[in-house]
Amino acid sequence: MQGKRILLGVTGGIAAYKSPDLVRRLRERGAEVQVVMSAGAREFVTATTFQAVSGRTVRADLWDAAAEAAMGHIELARWADAVLIAPASANFIARLASGQADDLIATLCLATQAPVAVAPAMNHVMWANAATRANIATISARGVQVFGPGEGDQACGETGTGRMLEPLDLADRVAALLPGVGALAGKRVLITAGPTREPIDPVRFVSNRSSGKMGFAVAQAAREAGATVVLVAGPVSVPTPAGVARIDVESAADMLAAVLRELPGTDVFISTAAVADYRPARCAQQKIKKTTETMDLSLERTTDVLATVAAHVERPFVVGFAAETESVENNARAKLMKKNLDMIAANEVGHAKAFDCEDNELLVLSRGARHELARAGKLTLARGLIELIAHDLAARNGARTRGTALA
Ligand code: CTP
Of all protein residues, whose CA lies closest to atom 27 belonging to ligand 1? Predict the structure, then answer.
């Protein structure tokens, strides 16, 4: 985190007593930390404490003319490489969900383009309340990362879920939000994930059982490896990994359009999506009525997103996925060649395998190599896959550089 700039918002809650320690953990890792306190936070900890541990004057007020003159709130929002609100009270989360800009912390969250994370801390009944659940769902869907909360004894004497995560844990999670160093630092990775929905009429569609979990794990692993990650996702209910830009789509045609829009400048394309191969030839304008005993649905082929990218003039390093019920290796190798891919990750599906389960195994084939990634959680497999991609990409770029030198 050397030289990275973290904006730490502290809102009102007893867990604010742990936030000075969080500042120290972030600074130990080399980060610069600017603390911004809400009015509620000042009831629990003093600004002097934060000033002492952060080495910077604490900001608290949107209307502080002297502070604004030194660095205005918009400038401060742009200064940050990442924003963390810890603790984030139920009230603050509600204001964030409704997009308010009525104090400095809320305004900074609206004005920043940096990744934003919250570490909720509140009584367990408040955390479980439907209003809080809805607010958390809203901010998560907008890409705000929610760190915790943990379970255990609470300051109010009760036990349950609502404790702020420990400072060390939070510091690690903030580090993962930052565009950093790693095997894919400086690279742009475009990933598709999840199923697509192909409409039959305004209320029905054809789809499949993909959960999107593998693709989201690949996005997280690529981000951890330092890449800028864009994730084009079909309809799934998986939280967006920290620091990943997510574009939601429905149909195969929407996915293709989003991918082609995002393709310029992409170094690696990873196609994990279970894109529908066929769509209804016609989508009825009105809901189809059950007037006959049987019904035929005429289907037509969708465009292959992966093959389109592999044939594109701005072709990046292209990785496909293959879900097979038999002859995994032969079928996957045939796809690698037919779609002109650099790499393919294959797995066996069917019954309870692969779809919607937590672990999996992968056979990764490239033109010259074969790797087996043993059964493990999807994130572990995704990290293994990203390592193989980074290795092949570096080898290819090295070969290109040598070629240029020889020429
Ligand atoms: N894919 C795609 N666009 C499609 C169909 C598939 O991008 N319209 C991608 C998937 O994301 C995956 C790979 O292609 O990376 C899967 O290859 P595919 O040949 O489509 O697999 P299957 O659908 O299983 O094909 P088949 O039925 O021929 O085995």
Answer: 277
Six-digit token string for 236: 């799934």
Checking if the pLDDT of 402 tops 80, the result is no
Confidence at residue 143, expressed as pLDDT on a 0 to 100 scale: 77
Say yes or no: CB of residue 347 within 6 Å of ligand 1: no
Index of the ligand 1 atom closest to the CA of residue 276? 8
| CATH fold match for the domains 5-177 and 188-280+296-406 | yes
Residue among 232, 255, 335 to mutate when testing ligand 1 (max atoms within 8 A of CB) = 335
Is the separation of the CB atoms in 215 and 191 below 8 Å?
A: yes
Q: Does domain 188-280+296-406 have CATH number 3.40.50.10300?
A: yes
Domain coordinates in residue numbering, the chain: 5-177, 188-280+296-406
Report d(CA 196, CA 280) in Å as an integer.
Answer: 13
Dump pLDDT digits (tens) for 163-184: 999 999 899 889 877 866 678 9
- Return d(Cα 278, Cα 37) in angstroms, integer: 54
| pLDDT tens digits, one per residue of 215-234 | 999 998 998 888 999 999 99
336 alpha carbon – ligand 1 mean position (Å): 11
CA-nearest residue, atom 14 of ligand 1 = 306
Name the residue at shortest CA distance from atom 23 of ligand 1: 277
Q: Which of 63-77, 139-153, 192-206 has the highest mean pLDDT?
A: 192-206
pTM: 0.68
Q: For residues 81 and 6, is the Cβ–Cβ distance under 8 A?
A: yes
Catalytic residues: 156
Residue 279 contacts residue 273 (beta carbons within 8 Å): no
Integer-rounded Cα Rg, in Å, for the chain is 24
CATH class of 5-177: alpha beta
Give me the mean pLDDT over the 363-384 stretch: 92
Q: Is 7 in the pocket of ligand 1 (CB under 6 A)?
A: no
